[in-house]
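Changelog excerpt

This revision adds worked examples to the README so contributors can see how folded entries look when concatenated. The first example is reproduced verbatim below.
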Amino acid sequence: MSATSVGATARPVSEPSFFEFVTLIAFMMALGSMSIDNLLPAFGPIQADYALPSANEVQLILTVYMIGFAVMQLFYGPISDIVGRRPTLMIGLVIFSIGSAIALFAHSFEMLLVARLIQGMGSAATRILSVTIVRDRYEGREMARVMSITMMIFIIVPVFAPAIGSFFLLFGTWHTIFVSMLVLAVILAVWFGRRMPETLRPEYRMPFSVKRIADGARRCVTERATFGYATAMALMFGALMGYLGSTQQIFETEVYGLGAIFPVVFGSIAAVMGVASFVNSKLVRRFGMRRLSHIGVVGFAAVAALMVVVALVFNGKPPLLLFAVILAGCQFLFSLTMPNFNTMAMEPLGDIAGTASSVIGFYTTIVGALVGMLISQSFDGTVTPLALGFLVTGAVALAVVFWTEKGKLFSPHHADPLPGIALH
């Protein structure tokens, strides 16, 4: 049976090295992020082209994308448990490409929103399959290490996304950015199709069953660690979405008026997140997921409180350097939580990795998108709503983690072993 067949159990001789595996998984994850970040400099031209009355209205481009992204995550995981990881990803990339093509010919803002919805529906496959494939091959702290390295690459790539978007705007319209998304989807399809073997283990392949899917979803909700860390992850993701939704107005136009320098500031802050992911990948095998993520969420809430104080002292417009340093601190601590929260949420559910990834992905994305929309839509020409949003999400996430661990923070436990092995 060939490696490209749905039911393949043997791996090709030239299967990807560890470096190529991690890079390919990171590329899968980065496609969705690139589809958000490289559009940020185009908010102004899109608002002008469609004569939108408010810059806040343009933020719907992010919201509808995340809604489609969230909803379709419910389907890709169970499908991949039935037919395999490879064909499921290809289905998602086709849907994403259709959305990208529609955006090129969108004659109204409403049609553009439909295109973004379809794009989100397609890119959900990259998020679900990337986590699922990593869980297929790794577990415990080793999985957290792989996810951290993946997140580092995943973050570094979009660091340049706003600058790339700005570059396209110099030589064309915002439509050119959607052309680049289409090209990236084709590159990913070819690379994945040629190099990634089927990772679904034969004994985990399941026939279609509504009851089985429902039982898997029920396990996600009733497993304390899964539900607790997924909820904390959703809240932290909401903070990130609130930042992404309002960052263009904060840095480029209304608060600091940086104009063309905006991608540099955005990229610098994103680079700090990449550094944090690298640090996490080096420390997680020694100190464990719980210690690092608990330090991250406690620190995030504390630094967010400082951001609120600074925002209030300066009437919502603190000096750029001061605000950027505090924001970068929050993002550094944020990056210590997300890969570890994700790993701990997935850890008890390796036998239903696809379904679990779908349910967790849907839940965290829809909650995160809604929380992020509340934060970004509260933008009032100052940084105060963002600071308050960070503080509330960080504090509630900390409370949820406290509940999940039954009041015992910073301690490794029996579910946090150091297997140090790949599940080949």
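The second example, added in the same revision:
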Amino acid sequence: MAVQSLLFSLAAATLASTAAAATSGEFSILAMNVAGLPSILNSNDVPGDKATNAGTIGTYFSEYDYDMIHVQEDFNYHAYLYATDDHPYRTATSGGAAIGSGLNSLSNFDWIDFSRTKWATCSDASGADCLTPKGFTFMRAIISDGVYIDFYNLHADAGTESGDETARAANLLQVAEYIDTWSTGNAVMVFGDTNSRYTRSLDNITVFEIENGLTDAFVQLEHSGVNPTVEVDCDNPSLVNNCETVDKVFYRGSKALTLDATYFNYESSKFLQANGSVLSDHNPITVNLTWSVGTTLRQSGFWGGPHGTWFNDLDSIPASPKASVLSFSGGSRLDAVGLTLADGTTFSHGGTGGTAVSLTLGSSEYWTEAELCQGKYSSETRNFYILATTSAGNTLSAGTSTSDCSTFTAPTGWQIVGFMGQDGDEMDQLAFIYAPQ
């Protein structure tokens, strides 16, 4: 954890010092079940040696250079897959079959707050889904300075027996509820092996659309936004895109970030053995997306550690906001932060300890800069100190400064009007929300 926190600090400090951050861009993703169960357990109807196939897949990952790759069933041939891939950021394996989840990510983007979650419900009705701790992973990827997307990788329960469909619906709902808790207000992408189809209503694959406001890139780009009602299975390899597989890609933007899927394709013909045979029993999916930061709301980078409860003021900020009162509390560490907007909207996060201080801003005065300092307490990284500076040069501070600090400055003509991060009795992690002055 100490190494992860150090890497996060270095990455955040680098981003914070970037002179001219990008405000728009594009990236590509790939979802692929790599059929990495031991051959003795499941051949996946894929010819050839699985270790060799894994190495070939990794070579293609490097060649095509997708920006974010989620793999499933990455079990016993993981080392061969990674040996031939050169993405700079990759998750560590959680183990082979019966030990790990088989879920990994390979990326051109760094990330913070990575976690693995096991399914609360599984079924062996038509297979051995309970043999290994399948589930989903979460990471908050750093696309650019102040540009974050919450990425979820999942592998749901397989099979079509009633027990399988009950478990699978529970799996998808578990992810949807996690998004509601840990990705409130954020841009989100969910992709992987859902083992679900729109024509199987008991799967409840529409839960991401209904519960989380996510868009299926396949439905959007290949079905004119209408969920399929007739099952059209894909061949493997698939040479058309209008058929449906159980591997899916969902996404949404936020008030601070616009996301739009522009391209969808089954990459089957790019992932073949030298003799033309497939490398997996699943068609890999790629989606290209464009992004742009908000014109009315944006966010800063994060400082502190991924502990406590997630909060985000983004969806509660009114039109044309302006900070009127800043309110902090601190002592040995930073206990709480808060502010009141000119229209009376109030935000408060953290605990009740520390000494309270406040600053009332003038009618033409804006909160434009914040310094945060972090440190270790009970083996966890959290914020120890905050120093706010206004456009008039007034300051307000709370907590105790450390040697590990970063300064977040609103873009020219913008101001700080809210917070996002994680809290408990104190301020664990913190970022700021910007709006035009």
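Reviewer comment on example two: The chain has two domains: 21-293, 298-436. Helices lie at 2-16, 50-64, 78-83, 162-182, 207-212, 217-222.
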